[in-house]
Design brief:
SH3 type barrels
Length: 99
């Protein structure tokens, strides 16, 4: 019984680490994967490096998107599109259309 009590704090720490660190990261990865799969032509996006543009084409074989920007068309990997920044950009666009 004494051995079990000595491992209880370590076990509790592992449970806390799982629920506060590992599980939220897994759900975030699932959301980002879903966002990346749902990219379609005409969607306004922001890359992780801060480049703003609109999706001009989606290349499924290359797992890339072609962004149309003010400087021309650029090709990026789907993983370089920022889910959070793109969501903020699209939310602001929807609010402007309503007003």
């Amino acid at each position: 019984m004494g051995d079990l009590n000595s491992f209880l704090p370590i076990l509790a720490m592992l449970v806390v680490v799982y629920f506060f660190m590992i599980r939220p990261q897994q759900t975030r990865q699932k959301k980002e994967k879903k966002f990346s799969e749902e990219l379609k032509k005409g969607t306004r996006v922001v890359t992780k490096s801060g480049l703003h543009g609109r999706v001009a084409d989606v290349a499924e074989k290359l797992n890339a998107v072609v962004l149309e920007t003010g400087a021309g068309k650029l090709t990026f990997d789907r993983s370089s599109i920022s889910m959070e920044l793109s969501a903020k950009l699209n939310d602001v666009g929807k609010e402007e259309k309503k007003a």
